[in-house]
């Protein structure tokens, strides 16, 4: 038996944080009837703002979640599940015109995420009420016209983060490119995994994370994890450019 969104009026919950905590608990109870794998949840609004995040599980994916939603929110189909990162059980469920629920499963096939669609679709109105009004000027200030007035978005296929369209006016005008720069020269004596050496060789201040991913045919979250590792070691500096 599935759990439908309850009214939170009169529950004694006052802050938005408390309300989201309760909603996430209820969603987890509902989807536990469908899958036995432990699920982790993040809720992000249409502007890429995190309304709820299950840390530290999602920490390494934060940048990519924001980029993916800011690029693709309008193109995602309502009620559908997108799994943009190959090999990672990270499902994006667009439940309303304001919100996406992201579910991460550490184990099992990614196909099990599709079974959760019916358990999430009824939460859209409740989560929209909790999010409140969004300032879409954050988007319209960066592009020539509001997203809803761009007819070509209706014809876009479901996007894939690792291969964004080079012709997208939204992508080119709204997104900041994340470009790593290696500030500690390699002398060839470092005992590093070959995969990490290959990534570091592209950290020249020219290639963005997406471009490195395409060059090496390596999933974007994996590239990000390697870059962040060496950023903490102060080997790499992160630059954000248009």
How does this structure look, described?
The structure is a single chain. By secondary structure, the chain is of the alpha+beta class. The chain has two domains: 16-163, Beta-Lactamase (2-Layer Sandwich), CATH 3.30.450; 176-241, Arc Repressor Mutant, subunit A (Orthogonal Bundle). Helix content is 32%, strand content 15%. It is built from nine helices and seven strands, in the order H-E-E-H-E-E-E-H-H-H-H-E-H-H-H-E. The strands form two sheets. The protein has a five-stranded antiparallel β-sheet. Strand 1 and strand 2 (50-53) form a beta hairpin. The model is unreliable at 140-173 (pLDDT under 50).
What are the SSEs and their pairings?
Elements: H1 16-31, E1 39-45, E2 50-53, H2 62-72, E3 81-82, E4 90-94, E5 99-105, H3 117-120, H4 124-131, H5 137-140, H6 169-174, E6 177-182, H7 194-201, H8 209-216, H9 220-232, E7 236-241
Short description:
The chain has 242 residues and is α+β, with helices and mostly antiparallel strands. The chain contains 9 helices and 7 strands, in the order H-E-E-H-E-E-E-H-H-H-H-E-H-H-H-E.
């Amino acid at each position: 038996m599935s759990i439908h969104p309850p009214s939170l009026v009169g529950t004694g919950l006052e802050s938005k944080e408390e309300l989201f905590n309760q909603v996430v608990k209820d969603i987890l109870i509902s989807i536990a009837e469908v899958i036995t794998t432990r699920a982790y949840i993040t809720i992000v609004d249409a502007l890429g703002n995190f309304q709820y995040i299950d840390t530290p599980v999602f920490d390494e994916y934060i940048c990519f979640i924001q980029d993916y939603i800011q690029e693709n929110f309008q193109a995602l189909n309502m009620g559908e599940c997108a799994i943009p990162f190959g090999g990672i059980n990270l499902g994006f469920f667009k439940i309303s015109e304001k919100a996406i629920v992201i579910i991460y499963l550490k184990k099992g096939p990614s196909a099990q995420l599709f079974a959760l669609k019916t358990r999430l679709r009824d939460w859209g109105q409740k989560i929209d009420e909790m999010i409140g009004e969004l300032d879409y000027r954050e988007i319209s200030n960066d592009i020539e016209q509001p997203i809803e007035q761009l007819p070509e978005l209706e014809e876009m296929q479901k996007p894939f983060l690792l291969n964004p369209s080079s012709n997208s006016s939204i992508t080119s005008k709204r997104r900041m490119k994340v470009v790593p720069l290696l500030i500690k020269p390699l002398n060839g004596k470092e005992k590093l995994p070959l995969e990490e050496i290959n990534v570091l060789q592209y950290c020249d201040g020219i290639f963005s994370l997406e471009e490195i991913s395409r060059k090496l045919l390596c999933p974007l979250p994996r590239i990000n994890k390697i870059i962040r590792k060496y950023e903490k070691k102060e080997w790499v500096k992160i630059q954000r450019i248009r």
